[in-house]
Design brief:
This protein is of the alpha/beta class. Helices cover 41% and strands 13% of the residues. Helix 5 packs parallel to helix 6 and helix 11 runs antiparallel to helix 12.
Length: 495
């Protein structure tokens, strides 16, 4: 029943007055903050069992960085937006409950390494069933596999109290970190999936009414539950596919002398293709793309669709290949050894305008360099501050990265100033496309580095001609730099 939510804005039979969101993370916090701003007549309470996280949401230093988020929270917090660990009161009071908890890839058991782990979602369902004394609309906000709503309903019904009924809706988020507030304020679409029953339609109508406070009706799409759940996985898979596609072509460009930026421009001007997500880079990261692709592979295998599973697995494989290609090129260009060589890593977050390091390509690059004995000086505008630098240490000493965490700790130093990070290093590796990096004084940087001085631009954001004029050996993605001594992947510069 895919359709726009058209017609006149009508007040549902039981308008929503109280909303509860379980989960105060990257999705729940920003989503409910904007919802509170746009719906001053609705009380919005975000709950989480993590007391430290809730305390941060109630402080001047929010637990996540997102442009515009601080301003939104300050306008609403204490008025109709509340952050609390009192889950029982919030669930009891709410007519509508968002489940916005983490759904990581399973690390053990059936589906290990691919399937989504729904233990936190199941825990929320059991908590709601235990606390609820009246009927609730329960909304999946977390990214979940197809038919997860069915599992939710089984848990709720199995633990139901007399007179309490539940409607399950799917309302996936389509946020891009770094622009989440803008995405929430002016969404491309709001997708709501529910049961094709009278009760299901009433629940959909209630959630539509909430969004209609600020979203145009023709941008609110309603589908059946399964279509909504699959749409989230499909959207992320398609975006990741575009990145892997252009990255595969970047290797061809380097081998032939083509320029991947020029190729991307030519492709993007075709209205059938469009220009977005055609920027070649060291690879995609973040909490969604890899996880959702793995989940889609797993689902396809379970549905006995091996060709479909193999297709999406190749998107993942290409991303891993790109990260490996970039890392190996650094080693090859530095005379095939980085042992005991200090190297500056600029950027650790998976993209600019966020402090999120989940699945960041920088981890893969750092792992390869550390395995080869390099000493790493790491700087990121948001992640390497005194407050957040523990995140970098935790990422690089996790069991997925190393069996020798103490050795890693002794081989990395985290800086809060980029000029200090690059001093006396052999090379600079750009892993995140922070605007700040384009504005650095590279004359000053060149003077402070060991010679020959190398820059590996993994995000294609720097002015390569200018850097070469200064004296840098510049290596980038998807383009041969034609000056003597400058090559791309797999070719050691002539000295």
């Amino acid at each position: 029943m895919t359709e726009s939510h058209n017609g006149h804005s009508t007040l549902p039979k039981n308008p929503i007055k109280h909303i509860c969101c379980i989960g105060a993370g990257y999705v729940g916090g920003p989503t409910c903050s904007v919802m509170a701003l746009m719906c001053p007549d609705i009380k919005v309470t975000v709950v989480d069992q993590n007391l430290d996280r809730i305390n941060q949401w109630n402080s001047d230093k929010l637990p996540i960085y997102e442009p515009g988020l601080d301003e939104v929270v300050k306008k609403c917090r204490g008025r109709n937006l509340f952050f609390s660990t009192d889950m029982e009161s919030a669930i009891h009071e709410a007519e509508l409950i968002f489940i916005s908890v983490n759904t990581p890839t399973k690390t053990s058991g059936n589906g290990k390494g691919r399937a989504a782990d729904l233990k936190h979602v199941e825990g929320c369902a059991r908590l709601i069933a235990k606390i609820a004394k009246n009927s609730k609309i329960v909304v999946e906000k977390s990214t979940v596999p197809v038919r997860a709503a069915e599992s939710l309903m089984h848990v709720l019904k199995a633990n139901n109290k007399p007179g309490v009924r539940y409607s399950i809706l799917s309302n996936p988020e389509f946020l891009a970190e770094g622009t989440a507030i803008e995405n929430l304020m002016k969404p491309d679409r709001v997708l709501i999936g529910g049961e094709e029953t009278e009760e299901g339609k009433r629940a959909i109508e209630s959630l539509c009414w909430v969004y209609e406070h600020w979203v145009e009706k023709d941008k609110i799409l309603t589908t059946n539950t399964w279509s909504s759940e699959l749409s989230k996985l499909a959207a992320n898979a398609m975006l990741a596919q575009r990145i892997s596609s252009i990255n595969s072509l970047s290797a061809v460009c380097e081998a032939t002398g083509a320029d991947v930026s020029e190729v991307a421009l030519a492709i993007g001007l075709d209205s059938r293709v469009g220009s977005k997500f055609l920027q070649a880079s060291v690879g995609f990261g973040g909490s969604c793309f890899q996880k959702d692709l793995l989940n889609l592979v797993y689902i396809s295998e379970k549905l006995n669709l091996p060709e479909v599973a193999q297709y999406w697995q190749k998107v993942i494989d290409m991303n891993e290949y790109q990260k490996s290609r970039f890392s190996q090129k650094i080693i090859e260009c530095l005379f095939n050894t980085v042992n005991d060589k200090p190297i500056a890593v600029l950027g650790f977050a998976f993209k600019k305008n966020t402090g999120d390091t989940r699945e960041t390509p920088a981890i893969s690059v750092c792992k390869t360099l550390l395995d080869e004995g390099a000493k790493l000086n790491i700087y990121d505008p948001k992640v390497s501050s005194k407050v957040e630098k523990s995140q970098i240490i935790m990422d690089l000493t996790s069991p997925r990265v190393t069996d020798f965490p103490d050795d890693v700790k002794s081989s990395i130093e985290i800086f809060t100033n980029p000029y200090d990070a690059v001093e006396k290093t052999h090379a600079i590796v750009v892993c995140t496309e922070w605007d700040e990096f384009t504005e650095l004084d590279f004359n000053r940087i060149y003077q402070s580095m060991m010679k020959p001085a190398y820059i590996f631009d993994g995000r294609k954001i720097l002015n390569h001609d200018e850097l070469q004029n200064i004296g840098f050996h510049v290596i980038t993605i998807g383009k041969r730099l034609n000056r003597i001594g400058l090559r791309t992947f797999g070719n050691v510069p002539q000295q």
